[in-house]
């Protein structure tokens, strides 16, 4: 049975498949896009120029997909309900819709599966993410394997 996890820190043994976490929301800014471009070196024109983005059919500058994924991981790590994480083991991710300056994103994170590993104090969680904008449209989705304490 699905449950929304209340505030707290949860190890692998304390969560079950279908448990979910709701993150807070974050508004994407031009400064974040500019900063991510400077950090990553990804200055593809749809990220840097309204004119260029419009020439490709977008209404304005588009946030980098990896910027949005990074923001979502930060939202996860600041959510009221948190997992006792050790390290991320990988992502399987889809960019479903563009995210624009001024869009507000947030995520629902659902535990899909969990398993133990050879170290008895650890486990691996498979987390499913549904990232939505202020209109409730899914903009990104995917899964993350998370090594966490039990």
Notes on the protein architecture:
This protein has 150 residues and is α+β, with helices and mostly antiparallel strands. It has a single domain, classed as Roll (Thiol Ester Dehydrase, Chain A), CATH 3.10.129.10. The chain is 23% helix and 41% strand. The chain has a 5-stranded antiparallel beta sheet, covered by helices on one side. The protein has a two-stranded parallel sheet with strand order 1-3. The longest helix has 14 residues. The mean pLDDT is 97.
Secondary structure elements and their pairing?
Layout: E1 8-10, E2 20-27, H1 30-40, H2 45-48, H3 50-55, H4 65-78, E3 81-83, E4 85-95, E5 104-116, E6 122-132, E7 138-149
Parallel strand pairs: 1-3
Antiparallel strand pairs: 2-5, 4-7, 5-6, 6-7
Q: Which sequence of strands runs across the widest sheet?
A: 2-5-6-7-4
Could you say what the CATH architecture is?
A: Roll
Total of domains: 1
Termini separation (Å)? 21 Å
CATH topology: Thiol Ester Dehydrase, Chain A
Q: Outline, from the CA principal axes?
A: elongated
Secondary structural class: alpha+beta
What is the residue-averaged pLDDT? 97
Supply the CATH class.
Answer: Alpha Beta
Number of strands: 7
Biggest β-sheet, characterized? 5 strands, antiparallel
What are the secondary-structure elements, in order, as H or E? EEHHHHEEEEE
Annotation field: number of helices:
4
- Indicate the percent of residues in helices: 10-25%
Approximate strand percentage: 35-45%
Q: How much is the radius of gyration in Å?
A: 17 Å
Low-pLDDT windows of residues: none
The CATH superfamily is Hotdog Thioesterase
